[in-house]
Write a structure and sequence with these properties.
The chain is α+β, with helices and mostly antiparallel strands. It contains ten helices and four strands; from the N terminus they run H-H-H-H-H-H-H-H-E-H-E-E-H-E.
Length: 295
Amino acid sequence: MTTPAKPKSSGKNIISLILMLAGCIVAAFALEEILVPAKIMDGGMVGISMIISQLTGWPLGVLTVLLNMPLVWIGSRKLDRSFLFKTVAAMLVFSGALSLFGRLHIHVTDDKLLATVFGGLILGLGVGLVIQNGGCLDGTEAVAMVISKKVNLSVGQIVLGFNIVIYLTAGALFGLDRALYSLLTYFIVSKVVDFVSTGMLQGKAIMIITDHGKEIAEDIYNTLGRTVTLMEGSGLISGEKVVLYCVITRIELSTMRKIIENDDYSAFMTVSDVSEIVGKHIKSHSAKIRTEDSE
């Protein structure tokens, strides 16, 4: 006997998809109508696409797809299927919206400072909506997630290093002032994304209260490559519980939510910001999971 799909869950997924696609359109508007006319660069592969478009005149929408899709393919072997599907959908809609706004030529402002501030605010809002609803607009983040699982660097640190190279290139090609404006835009976008999607470059501390500690811990490890600390707890009414503690990045938060929302698990989760991580932060698929037999 099959269990019917839950209407609330289906409706939630549809709303999430609509918000994500709306974020793609908002981000495309900020780029084509505010930042591109002022020659202010975004980061990641979108930033590289903007530089190539400025130099060659090729459509920005086409370049974002051509440059991003290979990176998404590289990251596809390690990414959650739902995240991968939403990322591809977001990039295609984002590319189409870029092409549309590129033909409209609205050009909101010619003032460089206004373009930097309001372009960053609007772009951050769009990107934040996409990330909050489980998608991604830039292939560098997808690849950074794969690299992050193999090295002791966060996704944010890898992306930041990549972006610094892009801004230095923009400075060499279009002048130092454009590089500085672009860097200012990046920090504005980061803060807005932090506000919208609960975390940009910061780590996220996850605390999970559950009856299925071992199953959830293994699911987190196999999906995200994150080790989990298990502690014993006791609820006033519910009795004995297992408390799981884990530190993840904001990109991984949507996948973590899906794990906790699994109907097979009885669990709830709290999320808080982590300003600093000191010491070894284990993140690897090569370590062995402890079992009762190995103790």
